[in-house]
Amino acid sequence: MTFAFAAPDARTLPLHVLEPGTVESWTAQQSDRVRAWVGASSFRAGLGTSLMVPGADGAPERALIGYGTAQQRARGRFALAGAVPQLAPGTYRIADGLPPEDAAREALGWLLCDYGFTRYSGAAPEVPALVAPEGIDAARVEILAVSETLTRDLINTPASDMGPTALEQAARDLAGVFGARVAVTAGDALLEQNFPMIHAVGRASADAPRLIDMRWGETGPKLTLVGKGVCFDTGGLNIKPGSSMGLMKKDMGGAANVLGLARMIMALGLQLQLRVLIPAVENSIAGNSFRPQDILTSRKGLTVEINNTDAEGRLVLADALALADEEKPDLLISMATLTGAARVAVGPDLAPFYVDDDAIASGLEQAGRRTADPLWRLPFWDPYEAMIEPGIADLDNAPSGGFAGSITAALFLRRFVTDTPSYVHFDIYGWQPAPAPGRSKGGFLQGPRAILDALPGLLAL
């Protein structure tokens, strides 16, 4: 898996991207031999279709890829990637037909076809190589692809090999590549340094809970990313049924996504001061597990009544957000696989986000459309604040009733951000349920490409 564009050479095959309405006009300009071949093949340029065109010697001379209609493309992402596996081995260059505004996105989808999770078994897919389309920032697209594979690999790795210690090492490895600094507070030191809720959630695990704090960059606006690093979630004493526990290795998807985003930022050399905070825990069951009806005091000083130990992600995020807020960054973003309610609301394909600033929301949504990283704004709905106030503590970590579960979780987190001017929370899924063009089944990046694309407008870079 190289996730890199090929250098053109004499053997590079031209690739023609055609929509259904352009097949006839394109073939009319070709030789009799090519017209006859295309006609006999009944190629109609449907989405995800391809056709190899042989030369006079029978060897491949060029290829056609169907781009479908605009309506068909709107129903998915990475339209070219659907046809890539059908192409003959070789190196290709886009000769014509691909709109310039689509080129970078489609090239990224092509590179991502090369991904396969092979740590334990199997081999990566064998994907034809692509010469970078003219006019795109090839280096940037390659950085996006490699950074996404980091996120996918982290999520796909099972908890046996991706506990808090391993997640810390992944952060240290990334920091080492780009000269970032990492500090870690672990075990009982969390109590000494006033991170009581991170400690409470993770103390029952043999792999000690910890707060990972990575910094990079010395100048520019301050951006802080907070990612939920629950490496496995049993549900705690409110134990999940087996059917709900099966995918809980992905409960550190927020951490995996912020690390992928951090890699993009550092590899591109953006002029900003980056901080990444990851509360890394395993929500295990033991004699010292935190319990329903416990009342925890957070780093912020707010008390929290525990009405469900399976609503643990917001607890560890709260302490990390409180720490981030003390520094008052220009922009604070949290990412978490936080609620099933978000999946019920928007499904696995959309990443819902919360922000009070309409300009930030608009910038993120537009960036999501440009980068094939779709987002959907949900509201910080103030009238629901009463739902997270239990009466005997400041906050309830799991309001009863089941209504507005993603919104109440977001409101809970917002209580811990009081001094930072701009706060955005993403309630992501982090998992691709079934294979799709450019997207293998498994761990999935949601939000970082859109955030990266929007950053120049959000932080005046």
CATH architecture of the largest domain, please?
Answer: 3-Layer(aba) Sandwich
CATH class of the largest domain: Alpha Beta
Over the alpha carbons, how many angstroms does the gyration radius reach? Answer: 24 Å
CATH-defined superfamily of the largest domain: Zn peptidases
Strand-pairing-aware structural class: alpha/beta
Share of helical residues: 25-40%
**What is the tally of beta strands?**
19
The stretches of 5 or more residues where confidence is low (pLDDT under 50) are none
The share of residues in extended strands comes to 15-25%
Average residue pLDDT: 97
Shape estimate: elongated
Task: Tell me the number of helical segments per DSSP (H or I, 4 or more residues long).
Answer: 15
Which fold name is given in CATH as the topology of the largest domain? Answer: Aminopeptidase
- What gap, in angstroms, lies between the N and C termini? 32 Å
Whole-number count of domains: 2
The description of the largest β-sheet is: 9 strands, mixed
